[in-house]
Design brief:
single chain; about 350 residues; alpha/beta; 5,6-Dimethylbenzimidazole Phosphoribosyltransferase, Chain: A, domain 1; Rossmann fold; 2 domains; 6-stranded parallel sheet
Length: about 350
Amino acid sequence: MKPELYKSNYQRACTALDQKTKPVGSLGTLEQVAARLSAIQGTLTPDANNTRAVLFAGDHGVVAEGISAFPREVTRQMLLNFASGGAAINAICNAHQIELEVINTGVCGDPVDGVLDYKIADGTANFHQSPAMTDEQLQLALQAGYEAIDRAQTAGINIVAIGEMGIGNTTAAAAIVSAICNAPASHTAGRGTGLDDAGVAHKINIVDESLVLHADRSPISVLQNLGGFEIAAMCGAMLKSSDYPIAIVVDGYIATAAALCATAINPQVHQQLIFAHQSAEPGHMIALNHLKATPLLQLGLRLGEGSGAALAIPLIQSAAAVLNDMATFETAGVDRELS
């Protein structure tokens, strides 16, 4: 959608919200979310009932540098957990009637039943030594994201929560955020899934050295050199969403790193995005500030899996209900001001 049309739609929704039986702006961020959803869909009666969480998974070669508290085998083990319904994202999606689609973009090992197989390779290359992806691999990863959004559109989905799973991907996210936001690794690399102080210091060194190795700061090069298959797929999904009236709910640190790349490639993508939460990773606020994004939730989450994005969906549905179902001052016969 062209920015001019989006802006016009957004302002129309704000005007409609101001007619509701409440003080102007009294529902705060909820009103902004309602207006954004209205603008994306181009209607004053936005539909927030058809929702899907899309979780991209991939392994990372940089794990060989000892930057994770968990071995890369955990990524595939979690795929099995997702498929059997035992993960946090399964529980959250079940609680709120959210569809869940899990996509393997590059997890080491055999395919997993119940998981869509878009596997590109057994993980990315070690970006501390070489680019994480070849040109062809990057395109395949982006395509996995494009097709996920095409499927959502065909299925009538209007809200897609984007998340990921991949041991080592907080290191990739830290490298991306440092590269795009021009921030030192000491500000972007955190504990991930549980590193101690020595582990964090080592992770910072690995990111710093990798940033020297890969000096090109164009967003597509940053994604290729420092990203992961699942991060590139999330970027692709965000890029593709601008073709459709689909709102993308961005999960935590890793998904926000993908959003940095997507919005740098195509600034119009930003208008499709709703940022779910601020994670416990220190670099997440740097990325959110760069994007001028205000997250809906602050729960100290650091799990990934799209868990925060799924948790935000009921809030977004509530925002739509305000615009759709609240009476106006005129229809309710309520005075706007004291006489």
